[in-house]
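Field log, afternoon session.

UNIT: design team B
ACTIVITY: writing a sequence onto a fixed backbone
BACKBONE:
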C-alpha cells in the first residue's frame, strides 16, 4: 500500500478530529462495504473523504490529487451528500457525467440512505428544440438523405420523450449532421419569445436542476454558467453551497476558452443559413435582405481559403501576413456589417428576425475586434486583462480566438466571490508533491492541497521501460525507431497495446510502418486507428477483440478506461511538450521570461509532466492489472530534468533492457 499525504501553502488541510460518520462509511465492514459487493477499505479514500469533509465545513478550497484506484468519486460524494447542502458536481466529459448520474450517485445515495434529489444538466445542444425541429420539418431542404431519414425519428422522439435528451435516441448517430438543425445554441435560442417556451426540454432540465440537491454538469456548461453566457443557468451557482470539479486538470484550458472569445466558420455558417431561411420566410418583400444573407457564405469560404489548407495555429500578426488573408478578413467584416445593417431595419417584424439581427451584430463586433487587434480588453473597472489573438485552422474550418494570457485573476474572483466550498480533484494535478503550477494557473495559491497515492502495488504490477539507443525525438528517424522498439514488446504481449503519439503526423507514420511490419512478421493483431471511428466505438472493439493494437493521439491520453487483460502495454512516443509555435503558449512563455521566470521549468515541464501522467495512467486500472509502460524518449534519462519527470510517475520498477520488458510481458501471458 502506498501512503497518503497532504500539503498546503500554510500546511496540511485544517487539522481537526476525523469525522466518525465518514469512518463508519468507508471502514472495513462499514456502510459502503455492507451495501456494495466488492467494496474494500482503502486508507487513502477515507483520508481524502475526511479532508473534503473538513473543507466543506470550513467553506474552503481544496486541491486534491488522488492516484488511480483511490476511489476519489466516492471520497467526494459521501461528504458532499452528508454535508454539502446544494452541490454542483462538474466533470470533464458527458460520458463521466452520465456515469456519475446513472451509477455512482445512486449507489452512494442509496447506501447512505440520504434523501437527496439529483439532476443531470447538459448543454442546450444535447436537447431537441421544438422550434428548430418544426422549422427543419417545414423547410424540407435538408442537406443529405441521411438527414431526411433521421428527421421522422426525431419528430416521434420529441413527441414521446420526457427529457428530450438526444443521447436517448440511439437510432440517430451522435455525429449525425441533422442534430445542429434540430437543437438550439446560445445564439439562436428565442428564449421567452419562443412559441414552444412552455414545452422546452432545456428549461425543463434547468427547472429540475434548480430544485435538486445535487446537480451533475460538465466543465463546459459550468463555465458557460460562470460567464453568464447561457440565460437561466446563472441561477444555479448563487444557490449552491459546494462545488466539486472532477477531472480538474482540464480546468485551465476550459477556463481559457470560456473567459475568452471565439468566432468561427461553423458559427458564421450557421448564422448565414439562419439568415437566409429567415429572409425567405419573414422578409420576402425585401430584396436586399436575402442578398445580404447569401453574401455571407462566400465571404466565409474566402477567409477559409486564405487561412490555408493545413491545420495550424497562428498569431494574429502572422495570419494577417499571409497572402490574401487581410483582404479576406476585411471582406468577411464587410459582409457581416451589411447583413447586420439590413437585419436591423426589419428586426421588429418578428422574434426570429430580431434574434438573427442580434447574432449578426455580435459576430460583426467580434470579427472587428479581432481584426483591429486590441491588446487588452477591460475585464473590470479595476483591471485590464491582456488577451492574445490568434487563429486556429482545422480541416473543418477556422476559429478566430481571443484568449486571456492568464485566467488566474478571473478564476480567483469566482472562487472568492461567496462563502462556498470548492473541491478541485484529479489523478494528475501535481509535479511530484508540488501543486504550485496548477494553483497559480487558477489563482488558487491560498487553497489547501492534498495528495493521496494509489493503493496499487506498482512495483509488482508494472514495469517502466525506456529503450536504449533511440534517436532524438525531434529527428525524422524517431517515429520509425519507436515502432521498431515496440515490435518485440507487441509480439510478447500478443497485441493488447495502446501506442500513444504526441502528433497526428507521427501516428500516421507509425500506422504505415506497423502495417508493413505486421504483414512481414505474420502478426494478426487488429490495428485500430484514431479517426477511423468514434473513440467509444474504437474502445468497444479494442475490448472485444482482446489482441488489438490501438494507435491514438491526444484524445486517448486521458479519460480512457480499459481494465483487465485487454490492455497490457502502453507505448508513448515522446514526452508531451506542447509545440512552442502555439501562439497562446508562446505569449505565455514570453510573459514569464519578461517577469524573470524560467519558461521551461515554470511552465513547459510541469505541463508535460501532468500530460504524461495522464497517458501513463491508462495502463494500470485495477489491483489485478499488470503491464509495461514504454516511454520512447531518451530525454527521460539523458536530461537533468528527466529525474523530476519519472519521479512524478507511479513508482513502477524501471529498466532499460528490452529483454526484461519482454520477459515481463511473456510472464503475464503465461500467468493468464
Amino acid at each position: 500500500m502506498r501512503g497518503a499525504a497532504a500539503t498546503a501553502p500554510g500546511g496540511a488541510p485544517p487539522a481537526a478530529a476525523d469525522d466518525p460518520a465518514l469512518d463508519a462509511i468507508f471502514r472495513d465492514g462499514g456502510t459502503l462495504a455492507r451495501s456494495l459487493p466488492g467494496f474494500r477499505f482503502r486508507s487513502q479514500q477515507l483520508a481524502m473523504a475526511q479532508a473534503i469533509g473538513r473543507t466543506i465545513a470550513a467553506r474552503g478550497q481544496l486541491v486534491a490529487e488522488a492516484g488511480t484506484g483511490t476511489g476519489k468519486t466516492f471520497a467526494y460524494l459521501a461528504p458532499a451528500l452528508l454535508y454539502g447542502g446544494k452541490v454542483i458536481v462538474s466533470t470533464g466529459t458527458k460520458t463521466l457525467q452520465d456515469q456519475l448520474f446513472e451509477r455512482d450517485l445512486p449507489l452512494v445515495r442509496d447506501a447512505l440512505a440520504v434523501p437527496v434529489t439529483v439532476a443531470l444538466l447538459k448543454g442546450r445542444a444535447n436537447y431537441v428544440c421544438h422550434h428548430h425541429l418544426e422549422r427543419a420539418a417545414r423547410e424540407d431542404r435538408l442537406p443529405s438523405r441521411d438527414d431526411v431519414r433521421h428527421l421522422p425519428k426525431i419528430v416521434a422522439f420529441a413527441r414521446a420523450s420526457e427529457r428530450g435528451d438526444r443521447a436517448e435516441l440511439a437510432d440517430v448517430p451522435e455525429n449525425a449532421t441533422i442534430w445542429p438543425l434540430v437543437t438550439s445554441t446560445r445564439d439562436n435560442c428565442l428564449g421567452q419569445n419562443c412559441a414552444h417556451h412552455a414545452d422546452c426540454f432545456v428549461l425543463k432540465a434547468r427547472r429540475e436542476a434548480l430544485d435538486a440537491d445535487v446537480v451533475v454538469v460538465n466543465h463546459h456548461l459550468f463555465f458557460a454558467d460562470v460567464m453568464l453566457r447561457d440565460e437561466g443557468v446563472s441561477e444555479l451557482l448563487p444557490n449552491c453551497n459546494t462545488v466539486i470539479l472532477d477531472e480538474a486538470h482540464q480546468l485551465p484550458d476550459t477556463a481559457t476558452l470560456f473567459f475568452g472569445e471565439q468566432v468561427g466558420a461553423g458559427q458564421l455558417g450557421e448564422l448565414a443559413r439562419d439568415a437566409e431561411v429567415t429572409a425567405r420566410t419573414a422578409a420576402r418583400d425585401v430584396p436586399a435582405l436575402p442578398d445580404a444573407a447569401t453574401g455571407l457564405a462566400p465571404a466565409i469560404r474566402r477567409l477559409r481559403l486564405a487561412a490555408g489548407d493545413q491545420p495550424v495555429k497562428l498569431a494574429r500578426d502572422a495570419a494577417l501576413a499571409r497572402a490574401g488573408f487581410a483582404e479576406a478578413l476585411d471582406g468577411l467584416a464587410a459582409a457581416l456589417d451589411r447583413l447586420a445593417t439590413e437585419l436591423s431595419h426589419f428586426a421588429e417584424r418578428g422574434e426570429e428576425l430580431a434574434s438573427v439581427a442580434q447574432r449578426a451584430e455580435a459576430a460583426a463586433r467580434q470579427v472587428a475586434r479581432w481584426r483591429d487587434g486590441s491588446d487588452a480588453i477591460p475585464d473590470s473597472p479595476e483591471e485590464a486583462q491582456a488577451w492574445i489573438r490568434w487563429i486556429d485552422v482545422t480541416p473543418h474550418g477556422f476559429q478566430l480566438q481571443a484568449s486571456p494570457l492568464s485566467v488566474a485573476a478571473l478564476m480567483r474572483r469566482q472562487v472568492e466571490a461567496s462563502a462556498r466550498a470548492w473541491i478541485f480533484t484529479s489523478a494528475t494535478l501535481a509535479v511530484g508533491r508540488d501543486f504550485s503550477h496548477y494553483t497559480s494557473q487558477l489563482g488558487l495559491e491560498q487553497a489547501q492541497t492534498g495528495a493521496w497515492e494509489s493503493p496499487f502495488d506498482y512495483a509488482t504490477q508494472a514495469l517502466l521501460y525506456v529503450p536504449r539507443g533511440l534517436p532524438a525525438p525531434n529527428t525524422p528517424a524517431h517515429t520509425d525507431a519507436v515502432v521498431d522498439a515496440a515490435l518485440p514488446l507487441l509480439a510478447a504481449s500478443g497485441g493488447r497495446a495502446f501506442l500513444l503519439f504526441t502528433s497526428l503526423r507521427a501516428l500516421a507514420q507509425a500506422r504505415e510502418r506497423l502495417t508493413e511490419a505486421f504483414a512481414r512478421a505474420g502478426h494478426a493483431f487488429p490495428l485500430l486507428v484514431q479517426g477511423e471511428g468514434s473513440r467509444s466505438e474504437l474502445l468497444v472493439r479494442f475490448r472485444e477483440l482482446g489482441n488489438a493494437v490501438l494507435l491514438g493521439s491526444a484524445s486517448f491520453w486521458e479519460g480512457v478506461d480499459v481494465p483487465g487483460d485487454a490492455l497490457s502495454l502502453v507505448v508513448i512516443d515522446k514526452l508531451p511538450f506542447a509545440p512552442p509555435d502555439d501562439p497562446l503558449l508562446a505569449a505565455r512563455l514570453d510573459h514569464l521570461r519578461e517577469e524573470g521566470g524560467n519558461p521551461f521549468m515554470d511552465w513547459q515541464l510541469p505541463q508535460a509532466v501532468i500530460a504524461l501522467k495522464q497517458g501513463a495512467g491508462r495502463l494500470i486500472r485495477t489491483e489485478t492489472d499488470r503491464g509495461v509502460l514504454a516511454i520512447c524518449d531518451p530525454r527521460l534519462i539523458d536530461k537533468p530534468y528527466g529525474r523530476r519527470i519519472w519521479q512524478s510517475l507511479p513508482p513502477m520498477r524501471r529498466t532499460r533492457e528490452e529483454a526484461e520488458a519482454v520477459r515481463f510481458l511473456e510472464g503475464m501471458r503465461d500467468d493468464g
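LOG NOTE: DSSP finds 28 helices and 20 strands in the chain.
NEXT ACTIVITY: expression trials, pending approval
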